[in-house]
Structures are given as C-alpha cells and as structure tokens.
Amino acid sequence: MAKVAKIPVIDISADSDQDQRQVAKELVEAAVEHGFIYIKNTGKDFPVEAVEGAFELSKKLFNAPLEEKQACTYQPNNRGWSAMHYETLDPKNQRVGDFKEAFNFGEFINGKAQQPLPASIASHESQISAFRDLCYNMCLKINTLLGIGLGVNPPDFFTQAHLTTRGTSGTILRLLYYPPLPQTTASPTDIRAGAHSDYGSITLLFRLKGQAGLEILTPDNTWAPVPVCPPGTENDPAPPILVNIGDLLSYWTNGLLRSTVHRVVFPGPEKGVVVEGETDTEPRYSMAFFCHPVGTTPLDVVPSERVQKFRPEGQRDGEPRKVMTADEHLQMRLRASYKQMYSDKE
Ligand SMILES: O=C(O)CCC(=O)C(=O)O
Ligand SMILES: [Fe+2]
C-alpha cells in the first residue's frame, strides 16, 4: 500500500519580522527536500469565497457548448482551450493524451483578458482577473519568503524579477477539468495528467475536497498520493493551497530547490493508493497558477551564497552553464509538450 506524501504544511500569514524569517526558513527547507509545500489557507491571505467562485466559473466554462470552447482553441502563445487528449504530458508512457480539458488565461490588462473568452463566462471577466491578481500577489509573497530563506542579495531579488510592471511574462492561470474514466474503453495506461514537472518558477494548485488523483514521485522513486486535506487542515475553511517548485526556479537555483515530478491518475481501489475520503469516480476540477518571472529575466545562478556553493550531483566545478532568459526556458518546454502544434509550423 503506497504511503501518502509527507509534505510540510506551512502558515505564511505571520506578521512579525522574526516569525517571517522562521517561516522563510521552513519554506526553503520544504522546497529543497520535497519541492512541494502546503500553504495553510485560513482565509487571511486568500479569501475562501474567491476560490469557491473561481471553481464555479470553471464548471460553467467546461459545461459551455463545444463551439464556444472551440472558438477559443489553444494557441502557440500558450493561451486558450485544450480539448480532451490534446496535451500529452508524458508521451513516452501514454497510449492516448491526458484525460482532461484545460483553459489557459494569460495576462489581463486593466481587468480585460487579452484573448477570446467563451461567451458563457465572458461577463465574469473581472472576477477571473481578480482571482488571477490574488494568485499573483500570493506568489510575490512566496517569492519574497524564498529570497529571505535562501539569503539572496537583495532579499527581494525574486520578487523584483516577477513584477508585472517590469514587463510581460509566461504566467498562466489554468483551469482544469478531468471527466470520469469511461469504464467500457478503459486501459491501465489511461492517465488524467501524465508524469511531468512544471515549467515556471512556482505553481499554486487549488483542489476540491474529496477529489483524488494527484501523486508525486518521491526520492526513492515510488509514487505517493498527495491528499487534498493533510492532517491538521481538516477544519480550516478551505483546503491548503499546494505550492510546488517549477523547473525554471530549480534551474535558477542550480538545482538546490527541487522541481518534483508529479501526475494525476485514476487511483482505483485495486491499486491500493486511494486516500481515505477521496474518490476518482466523479468529475475532477483543479486550478493551477503557473508563475513565471518577466520573460527577459536572465537565468544566471541567483546571488545567494548557499545556492552558489551548491553542487548538484554529477556536476563538476567550473562546468559551463547556459544562461537563457525566462522566455527561452519556457519556449523550450512548451515545444516538447505540444509537438503537434509546433511541427505544423516548422
Ligand atoms: O490537477 C492537478 O492536481 C495537477 C495538475 C498539474 O500538475 C498541472 O496542470 O501541471
Ligand atoms: Fe503540474
């Protein structure tokens, strides 16, 4: 029987400087060891109604008529709707693409989307924009804490690199819908989201109580389910926000912060990995906020003694490191995930 992942739960709503330094330290240790952190949601940093409202909109969006969604089809700018099986996150191991639909929202300017929206949710444009802003602000706070915890000089180095006032970025709010598995055609390799690591700096993930499926690959190479409500959060007004380190931040910190591989499966009782109180037989909804630094940010190793002294396994001193910008890093990853789209164009 697989054990559930042991990911630390951290409350980042502390007010005093001393508490903040302690929280920053805990956050960095969790990022180094696990690459995943639960951020307790007591409603202080992130209003519970905003999360609930966004999930309601998500249901409306995915229930909208097909033509409405097709009119917003996914584009090379990483925005829009991707249909069932369109994305294949783990092409080597999947027979068919992911059992999911997704809708990516890029930046909003003065509350207005810079991409077509399905008519069914168009009147809620300002609500989506406000939710995106809440996510962005939470990411700035986490970036500040990571900077403090890593002793980066200046401590707001990461925060500055993410400021939208400094330019555009690849940041995306993604709504996800995973329908139940059609039992008649099911195959053991069917998967809701193939094994992958995220591309950006950090990801915020919102999930709904009772909906199983997310697993992380642990250092001993086994899959461990990630409960929506880990012990100690059951009575909070909302499940914690799950934060994970993406490839870009791992690259930027020379591998010190871990970008952990994860996937979304149909766990099923026969595989023995169901978290108590969670099920995979219902439709599943989740929301991810993929935070990226401003696109022109050069990803030279960050100015922190701890990071600069760190040597990832297998890397020798003085080995040249390719410095690319945040945008170049993202393009490299998108090309690998959406081969069919890019091969049409090349
Ligand atoms: O739906 C989830 O729980 C995770 C989704 C995910 O990992 C992703 O979209 O990158
Ligand atoms: Fe992911």
From TrEMBL:
GO terms for biological process: small molecule biosynthetic process. Residues 168-293 form the Fe2OG dioxygenase domain. Pfam families: 2OG-FeII_Oxy (PF03171), DIOX_N (PF14226). InterPro entries: DIOX_N (IPR026992), IPNS-like_FE2OG_OXY (IPR044861), IPNS-like_sf (IPR027443), Oxoglu/Fe-dep_dioxygenase_dom (IPR005123). Keywords: Iron, Metal-binding, Oxidoreductase. One of its GO terms (molecular function) is oxidoreductase activity. Belongs to the iron/ascorbate-dependent oxidoreductase family. This is Fe2OG dioxygenase domain-containing protein. It comes from Cercophora scortea.
